[in-house]
Amino acid sequence: MQHFEVNFDGLVGPTHNYAGLSFGNVASLNSAQSSSNPRSAAKQGLRKMKALHDMGMVQGVLAPQERPDVDTLRRLGFTGSDHEVLAKAAKQAPAIFRACCSASSMWTANAATVSPSADTANGKVHFTPANLTNKFHRSLEPTVTGRILKAMFSSDRHFQHHTHLPDNEHFGDEGAANHTRLCSQYGHAGVEVFVYGRYAFDASKPAPTKFPARQTYEASQAVARLHGLSEDSTVYIQQNPEVIDQGVFHNDVIAVGNQNVLFYHQQAFSDTQGKLREIEDKLGADMHFIEVPSSAVSVADAVSTYLFNTQLITLPNGQMIIVAPTECEEHPGVASYLSELTSGNGPISDVRYFDVKQSMRNGGGPACLRLRVAMNGDELAAVNPHVLMNDALFSRLNQWVDKHYRDELAVDDLQDPQLLVESRTALDELTQILHLGSVYPFQQD
Ligand code: SUG
Question: What are the backbone dihedrals phi and psi of residue 194, each rounded to the nearest 5 degrees, phi first?
Answer without folding.
Answer: -105, 130
